[in-house]
Amino acid sequence: EPMTALNPVKTIGEQVAEGIRWHTGANRTDAEARARAILDRVGLPEKQFPLTRFPHELSGGQRQRVVIAIACALKPKLLIADEPTTALDVVLQAQILELLRDLVQEDRMGLLLISHDLAVVTDMADRVTIMRHGEVMETGETARTLSEQKHPYTRQLAEASVHVPERRAQPTESEPLLEVRDVVKDYPVR
Hints:
two-stranded antiparallel sheet; single chain; alpha+beta; Rossmann fold; two-stranded parallel ribbon
């Protein structure tokens, strides 16, 4: 959850610049310039999202972009994304996944995506490892592993991810479900 990952009393600029200063020894001005550049890159342009904004002033998707900016500011070789789309609506999920895909491709970094959402995994991952209670159940190329489902737990996950709750059939009778007669709503005078 990006709201808990960010410090509520520090601006987004301070939080992105902090890692840059700490790990590179850059001065404040240079670190802020680099912070501004990465925030622009993740879709938070200066005009609408100045460095002086606080996390509570941003939406969930915007906070997630700040967290991604912090993670990518130093151009790591491997980006670990643990449930990056949790608590985001479907549109924001798609935007965040596309952003991650672009950053990984542009910076030529690896992505370790941790997710319970098999649709996200299928869309994003070349290879998948199915784990249960910290133990590897199955691993391999994503499309093959998820289509063959050799391990029973992989089958359970696949079934659960496409499960649609049963709905009761709509009544076919033309009779009303409820009839009300002689109803009066009274407002007593005080």
